[in-house]
Amino acid sequence: MNKKGFTLVELLAVIIIIGIISGIAIGGTSIYMNKTREKAYEAMELTLFNGAQNYIIDNPPTNNISVSSEDIDTIKILHNGMIYIIRNGQMYILRDGVMYNAIGQIAE
Hints:
Elements: H1 8-58, E1 72-77, E2 83-87, E3 90-95, E4 98-101
Antiparallel strand pairs: 1-2, 2-3, 3-4
């Protein structure tokens, strides 16, 4: 008898082996993709911090508060364009060129 082609068992075995190999490959790459994504977020956060810090130093508040890079502990850019700053342990908000303290009064 002349056999041509593959049996169903042989085809299933090949499909299972390919599935196992691709599962290992996809699982391994997802770990590296997550690490890369985390590093990208850290780089973006640092870039935003440096940019906001430079903006504040180059465009000081109009109420004559001196701001230097050593003073600033934390900077967050809020969705409405205000900049949230922690400076020497105190919270400030920079809005429209004026720096306000935590209770909304113009900082002195």
